[in-house]
Amino acid sequence: MSKDFEPRIVVFACNWCSYAALDLAGTSRMKYPPNFLVIRVMCSGRVDPQFILEAFRRGADGVLVAGCHPGDCHYIEGNIKALRRMTLLKRVLEEFGIEKERFRLEWISASEAEKFVRVANEMLEKIKPLGPLKVEEVHMHG
Amino acid sequence: MNEEPRIGVYICHCGVNIAGSVNIKEVVEYAKNLPNVIEARDYIFMCSAPGQEIIKEGIKKCNLNRVVVAACSPTMHEHTFRNVLAEAGINPYLLEMVNIREQCSWVHSDNKEAATTKAKILIKMAVAKASLLEPLKEITFKVNKNVLVIGGGVAGLSAARDLAAKGFKVYLIERKPVIGGNTARLGRLAHAEIKGIDLVGELSRQVLSSPNIHIYVDTELANVDGSVGDFKIKLVKNPRYVNEKCNLCGECVKVCPVDVPNEYEFGVSSRKAIYLPFREAYPPIYVVDSENCTRCFECVKVCPMNAINLAEKTEEIELTVGAIIIAAGHEPYEPPIGEFGYGVSSRVITLFQLERMLDEAGPTKGELKLDGREPKNIVFITCVGSLNTTPNAYPYCSRMCCSSTIKNALMIREKHPEANIYILHRDIRTYSRGDEQLYLKAGESLIRFARYREAPNVIVNPDGSINVRFFEETIQEEVFLPADLVVLSVGMKPPKDIDKVRTIVKVGCGPEGFLREAHLKLRPVEAATDGVYLAGTVTGPKNVIESIESGSAAASKASTLLTKEEVRVEPLIAVVDEERCSGCSICIGVCPYGAIRLKTQEEVRVAEVDPALCKGCGACAASCPTGAMQQFGFKDAQLKSQVLAALIE
């Protein structure tokens, strides 16, 4: 495995909790690896599994979906909808041969900047040894 | 918008906050070469007046129709830059912010090269999305000037009073047959030398004297439609079976054959199936407890006023209001049978039962006697139901119990100088004004404090006597106390049926079931749902002072909305492409706000979004199988363009 492999990880962060946690990590001057590229959505319930498949198809080495804790959703229960969808998606990803370490759904509240940093470090640690996602080996159509 | 995208990218240094870790010059050069970018410029503070001028100038000079600002978090200045676009004459929603401060320069200040590369990719993602942005029209609503207050406790009463004083019409609903809430059942309150019932009486008088307030007791919330500024409310008024002709003569009570524990006295005394909750109750009308009434009609026969009608039906009431205040209160924690001997021995009571016994106007006329004898050894146990003391307890501190325990212990001390009074506690939290002095006074009055960590063991002996055993933390010894009376200082828990209210009004709750504020510190009396405000203990334990304060705060906050003629809402809501919609109605099941319905158009069923109800979560868009359902500002194509730009070189 190339030592220089820097995974590119797409993050879908809900506006109210997780995006705010990422901002807090900044205002608190925390440090985390620069491999995470954030796409802001209003709610984790907005994340269509197709976006994640698209990300993997286009060469993402990992995807993180981050939303409010259950019960804290700004839109009552969008995060629960995300949980249902992502549980199913995990099985689909498995079918495609995408290692489970490459995808995570996490509840990160607006005050949990540290949790994001921890999750980011963990993800990177687990994805690096896997190497880049070899899309051509994965039978994905669409 | 069919014209070609012409994008301007404006990169902020934020002093050294961004420029210190990101090579701005390199990023500007990179941005210039991105697709559709006409101009890329940087400035030391893009949010400053000269910075804003640079953008306006660019829009005019380069004939831009999209703007990307790479600066701080959109929560900080998105609003500022939207205004800049509007002032320059283009739609404010043709802006995309790039967060290169909080989510780039500050967190990667240790790696300038990586920070610069990441800033470039983030800008590339935003430029891709900006190319697909559409002009959007803000949604405005007229504001109805009426308010609904849910809950007639001290928080609801003070909110109603303040709003009425500002000239708004207030509808106050209370599901119980009386207003006053939990405070009405408290005896003498600490410091104020006023009884709970008198405090409620004073607040009620202020409320009742206002022609702007309409009170509905026995009334529950049935449905809420509409949104901020224009809520359509449905109420259900349960039958009371006694009307206002009632003159409180009490003849009915004499003939009623039913005896049930009186919940308004916490079961210390009993009541009939027809009763007045308490003497000073408002409204001063008897009520029939239909659950326990045997329909013997004896009361109907003896009522001299003909005020009783057992055939009364529920009544539906419809209202329109601009704002809703939820002040639904709390319930005291009820220990399960056997917890600290509760329900096993009549000598184990709760703090509220003690409050009723010590009240001169209460069922025992203020006399504290058990089986005809005054208790000699009295043991209070605090944190019952709080601080995870027992497996059934809640994790939080209930805030009022320490002070209330000490106040009651001192009241007992006044009448019983010989009694041995112990307060077993996890921690004493007498934080409210004057409470610490009360704590000191208790010590001077020989009330003994002892600290436990593991919940004390209350042993009910076969002969009925009680012993309390616990490990005292300060002296590090096992202590064994005989007790004639054990008082459990119970905490607060969310009120029964609060889930029903919060589902109807659409407000979130915390892990314990209390309602959630929009922001704990910045917006403590607002719900995340626009136009909904929260007051009193419905958000968590508070003492009487704090409850009244939050009632006034919620009223003040609500009035900032009610004084407006119209409200503006960000149009980031769902939208249907009718051509693609198959009418499958999956989105309808997913929508938490009931904002989508099917309409028939040219004999085809298609989904339709009510812009007044949609809050813009996008759950429907994520679940639409044909891609017909989209969300403005977060369309599939816009989000996918960001994914693509993030990954493809």
Q: What general form of chain A does the structure show?
A: globular
Helix content of chain A: 25-40%
- Terminal CA distance of chain B reads 28 Å
CATH topology of chain A: Rossmann fold
What is the number of independent domains of chain A? 1
Strands of the largest sheet of chain B, in order across it?
Answer: 8-7-6-16-27
As a percent range, the share of strand residues of chain A is 15-25%
Would you count the extended β strands of chain B for me?
32
Query: Rg of chain A from C-alpha positions?
Result: 15 Å
Sheet-strand content of chain B, in percent, reads 15-25%
* Helical amount of chain B: 25-40%
- Biggest interface in this structure? A-B, 43 and 50 residues
The structural class of chain B is: alpha/beta
How many angstroms does the end-to-end distance of chain A come to? 30 Å
Structure, explained:
The complex is a heterodimer of chains A (142) and B (649). By secondary structure, chain A is α/β, with parallel strands linked by helices. Chain A is built from 4 helices and 4 strands; from the N terminus they run E-H-E-H-E-H-E-H. Chain A has a 4-stranded parallel beta sheet with strand order 2-1-3-4, sandwiched between helices. In chain A, helix 1 links the parallel strand 1 (9-14) and strand 2. In chain A, helix 1 (18-27) crosses helix 4 (113-127). The longest helix of chain A is centred in the middle third of the chain and has 19 residues, at 78-96. The model of chain A has no long low-confidence stretch (mean pLDDT 91). Helix content of chain B is 27%, strand content 23%. Chain B is built from 17 helices and 32 strands. In chain B, a hairpin with a 2-residue loop joins strand 30 (596-601) and strand 31. The longest helix of chain B has 20 residues, at 112-131. The chains are: A alpha/beta (142), B alpha/beta (649). The interface between A and B is large, with 43 and 50 residues.
